[in-house]
Amino acid sequence: MIIIKTDEEIEGIRKASIIVAEVLEFAREIVAPGIMTKEIDEKIREFIKKRGGYPAFLGYRGFPASSCISLNDEVVHGIPGNRRVKEGDLVKVDVGVVYNGYVGDAAITIIVGEVPQKVRKLVETTERALYRGIEKAQPGNRLSDISHAIQETAEKEGFSVVRELGGHGVGLKLHEEPFVPNYGPPGRGPLLKRGMTLALEPMVNMGQPHVKTKKDGWTVVTKDGSLSAHFEHTIAILDNGPEILTKI
Predict the structure, then answer these.
(1) Mean pLDDT per segment of 10 residues, for the chain of length 248 residues?
(2) The CATH number of the domain where 66 resides is what?
């Protein structure tokens, strides 16, 4: 069942989402060559705590960290550890925050130093695909209008979208109905209505769309070893269209 939120609930989700946005801006400042991914996670955890929130990912289904940090061919759900960031890496930082019982969720891909133009294009296209999807989150549209816009944007540039994973409802819990695929024909699925809150998150690969999960049970990587990019925003569908909540 898709939960339609009240104005009061949307305001609560907005406050949690603002902290998420602040965390991701903080991550952009600290991600640099030489830092260990577990150091990034520790700093993120402390940042969330200082803002009065709680890391939504910590302990979620047994996840051992406060953020997902995925490098290069890792698509999502990377577990922070002893690896050090190096020049040329793509660092995907995914963060959820619980604040006063409400949840916000977002992700960014950070380019570390100089990368080939095609890699930069992958990252830029993934972010653009997210915003194209958000544009379609209008009352009266169908859920797959979002999915189609994301797929069309990515594939037009020669990239592929991951099919096993996608966006989701969010706000009162970290994961709610509906599942939001990043591919598919338009005009299908549930009718979009005022009060829906969704986390939209295209995951776009430079190579093929196929993925697998590593032995740690969490980290999802591209099967062909190609680079992957990931962006995510929590949005609310309002009378006049979508509002991005994870934005300062």
Answers:
(1) 98 98 98 98 98 98 98 98 98 98 98 98 98 98 98 98 98 98 98 98 98 98 98 98 97
(2) 3.90.230.10
Residue 97, C-beta contacts closer than 8 angstroms, at least 6 positions apart = 16, 17, 19, 20, 23, 48, 51, 53, 54, 55, 56, 103, 104, 105
Query: Do the domain assignments include residue 214?
Result: yes
- Which pLDDT belongs to residue 180? 98
Please tell me the distance from the alpha carbon of residue 192 to that of residue 209, in angstroms, as a whole number. 27
Range of the domain at 210: 7-244
Does residue 1 sit within a domain?
A: no
Give the integer Cα–Cα distance in Å for 16 and 247.
11
Does residue 79 belong to any structural domain of this protein? Answer: yes
